[in-house]
Amino acid sequence: MRGPGRPTRAAVYQRLEEAVAELRSRLGGLPLPAEAEDIWSSIWHQEAHNSTALEGNTLVLREVERLLEEERAVGAKPLRDYMEVRGYGDAAHWVYGQALDPGDWQTGELITAQEVRHVHHLCMAPVWTVDPHPHAGQGEGPGSFRRHEIAAFPGGMKPPPWTDVDHRMRGWLDEANALRDTGEEPLPEALAGVHNSFEVIHPFLDGNGRVGRLVLNLLLGRLGYPPAIIYKRDRDKYLRAMRKADKGERGPLGELIARSVTDNLYRFVIPAVAGPVKLVPLAALATEEISGNALRTAAVRGRLRAVKGDDGVWRSSKKWVQEYREAKYRR
Q1: Domain Fido spans what residues (predicted)?
Q2: How far is 59 from 42, CA to CA, in rounded Å?
Q3: CA 97 to CA 68: how far, in whole Å?
Q4: I need a surface site. Which of 30, 177, 189, 191 has the fewest CB within 10 A?
Q5: Cβ-contact 101, 32 below 8 angstroms
């Protein structure tokens, strides 16, 4: 049940599309990783930390940052945990670059089987060098589809027999490559269906959750959206949404994806791309010290320099917010 004052799912989807339209029409779209290294590094650290933490990894964000930026293992955690993060970081780095600048990988499709296998190899090879899967047979290493049966999951979902994986993945690729034309279905729910279908197939012996989230972000990037980060604090919500998607109800997972992408747009991408003087929605200027609602109140009262557009959205700039905060503290 949706709590009082909580926006509807349709409103969540509309907010995402408005944020993406802002990025494309006013700010030139997503920057390439080489053009805005700081933006992508921040998302890179958060994603590698949270996606591996969902699977039980014990590294905290500071340890993840040091490992990815300096290749230094800080702390005294199991070697497997460091190698999991190292592999995920390598794979995420490749995903961000290829999503926005595919180079030799460009095929005209959103995603290929070769790319899915490559993401799995990058993600899992480091940890398998120190702790290989105990049941892996010949030909089941990183980048190769499973040749084992998978037991049913707690929610009742049972992956198909391994003999069906190749066939099912061909169907999955068709579904993923149709995302550019979702018809009347909201894109977040179409993405939710593709993400859930991947996890149902469970094409690899291990690492399907991590690789599924990386593949989701490869698709998002190629569609012009920033990555989704499923935070470890939302693990239970994510798993509940996946179980509902198993039964054909895509809405909760679609909403979770939409909220994550919108938050990343406003938190990481739009403020950095806009610079200090370009006008952006107040949500992109909010911080831990001052909320979007507080900025809107200040704008309405004339205390913050801001402009209300024909679309009803208040916009200001980093420079104007800084001036407002300095004046506020002088009073």
Answers
A1: 111-259
A2: 16
A3: 16
A4: 177
A5: yes
